[in-house]
Request: fold
Amino acid sequence: MSSKYDVLVIGGGNAALCAAIAARRGGASVLVLEGAPKFYRGGNTRHTRNMRCAHDAATEILTGPYTEEEFWEDLLRVTGGKTDEELARHMIRESKDILNWIVEQGVRWQPSLGGTLSLGRTNSFFLGGGRAMLNALYLTAERLGVDVEYDAEVTDLVIEDGMFLAARLKRPIKGETEIRATSLVAAAGGFEANIEWLKQYWGEAADNFLIRGTPYNRGSILKMLLDKGVQEVGDPTQCHAVAIDARAPKFDGGIITRHDSVVFGIVVNKHAQRFYDEGEDIWPKRYAIWGRLVAAQPDQIAYIIFDSTVVTSFMPTLFPPIAGQSVAELAGKLELDPAALEKTITEFNAAVRPGTFDHTILDDCVTEGITPPKTHWARKIETPPYLAYPVRPGITFTYLGTRVTKEARMLMADGKPSANMFAAGEIMAGNVLGKGYAAGMGMTIGSVFGRIAGREAARHAKN
Amino acid sequence: MHGTRILDEADRLMTVCNSCRYCEGLCAVFPAMEMRRAFSDGDLNYLANLCHSCGACYVDCQFSPPHEFNVNVPQTLAVARAESYAAYAWPQALSGAFARNGLVISIAAALSMAAFIFGFAVLNDRSVLFGVHTGPGAFYKLMPHNAMAALFSAAFLYAILALIMSVRAFWRDIGVPIGGRADGGSMFQAIRDAGELRYLHGGGVGCYNEDDRPTDRRKLYHHLTFYGFLLCFAATSVATLYHYLLAREAPYPVWDLPVVLGTLGGIGLIAGTVGLFVAKLRRAPELLDENRYGMDVGFIAMLFLTGLTGMLLLVLRETAAMGPLLALHLGAVFALFITMPYGKFVHGLYRFAALVRYAQERRSEAGT
Reply:
């Protein structure tokens, strides 16, 4: 490994590889430092499956147009206005070209997967999933002559007056070293796997969080940059959380531990009490709120409870539901108070009004006279066996990041742009995504800003 | 719970995969899986035989080892596939042949070739065995045509019977009701899918071999082997027609159809099997069912021997080596025939049946 590169990319996911490829295509020598071992390379990208790009007409795999304006409206809605309009519109415009550019880097598309038809018009799916996408990007990067190091933990960044000079590196076999580069692209993700950091905002509750990605998403680069004078963006206390099976591993359970059966039953906490309207909204919005809701419950645990009539209404699950022939038996298996659970279900059943069930729309099946109500899809839970999934908050990503310009250039705390530091991906997602989420947007941010950051970093290095 | 450890594991994996579905665009296995929520033994054997072992789902899977979910679909289905060959073998008394298949095939081949050499030596005068014979009927100076035809017809018919019975058991077990037949459209689709090895392509880039760089080499080698085999079969069929319809006896001139077909087929068999063997040696072990190494290599070796002895016989048929070479070639072909129902040959039939079933399922799902 030569000691000086034109462009140093820290991180190994979609944004990092797009940056590395774009920089290399721009004529720069490029080193990618991935902190994880090869198998776990790519951070959250390995668990993704699609990307949201604007397009003016249907394509081979997209069922219809998705205009820039519509994309912008969707972004505005999910973020509740917490976004940088100029940056966001720029990203959306660039996303149109990414749809083709990413294919030129070896990534292959396929139509939306079974069970995700609602995304068929807006989102392009990676053939073989996120790890297949990563594999393609790595093969392309290596073919172009990008150097890649795994297990490469960056321990310090040497930054003077907003100017990156070098990165200090600890490697398990080759030991410590310092790498100098003319430009830096930081694409090392958020801090969702850093429980201690999460505890600063969530307290001891964070011990009960499950992390959907690898244990390597510790946010150490983000922290170094913020500590060294880069301006921060996004709410540090917030993270994207969904309800995932409580039996999932602490880290890296990925997408298969999720549950989307909330609408087909009720959700109770450890006291066997309901705590939120299970029929509030349609997928995917409801999907994104339940992690947060469970996080607010005692011991950060909840139970989705339904009966045998709805088992085939949702996708098959990794972990089977826990079953009981009676409500009391189920309560026993869940270690809930049987009398309390029986009371909750009896009251719920008594409150259900007749209606025409249709889970694809906001139907007219509602409850009356209970708090909280279930405002859609309310049906009695009365056909044994009674079934349950225990769920906990599954943390996907964090919103805190480095502020950037349209050129993906980091801004320093004093408002001045950094001379040679660029950021892409989750580490700067908070610029456009102040809160909320819409499927595939993380990958859009990664590819669009990764490509911009790589291009600009190479341009700086070659000047 | 299923009958065997490997089916339990296949069931576990299909449950994992069915809750993920990222691989559904790679091949036929995952779309077929998605049509089910629970998996019977027959379902799992169907999926196992639908898998072409391209390896893409392993390389693309975020849960493959060392991940704790330990998802290795290609290897698990390879083991399940090999066990299904034994499970459906007819008669069941011979299913044990799959357990140490390399040994069984080697012994069958050795005995068969030895028997022909011994038979030729006992029945023929030394001067005939090592004599130079040319012109029509030359081969039959060593073994009368009717004896040859009777022996090989018997072996061939037995193989056909055993294969039909085996595939029938498989066909019933993968969910086709008794008497249920394949419709023409599904058959045609399956012939196309098998003929072009549509699912040995890693979703479009090729299959995975020794590393994470996909290629199309195994597909090429398999095409050479398979079409080489078909050409050799066609050569024999044409020769049989010549014999009975036109009363023209082998050996035929080098420009004549049976020899041209046989030569092309022989070259394909030799090049293809060598390629497949080398690819097998180099393939990443985590993708393979290594216990079945003998079965795979045994079949490759039988095809190679058939091709090689056939080509040598063509080149040296006007020399004194013709007699012994004819014995070797007939021995190899005889062994190939009688071991067909009890070796890797069956993979083609089960996979074809699975492809027909898949085409049927796709058509009924699409409502046509």
Observations:
- The two ends of chain B are 35 Å apart (CA to CA).
- Chain B is about 65% helix and 0% strand.
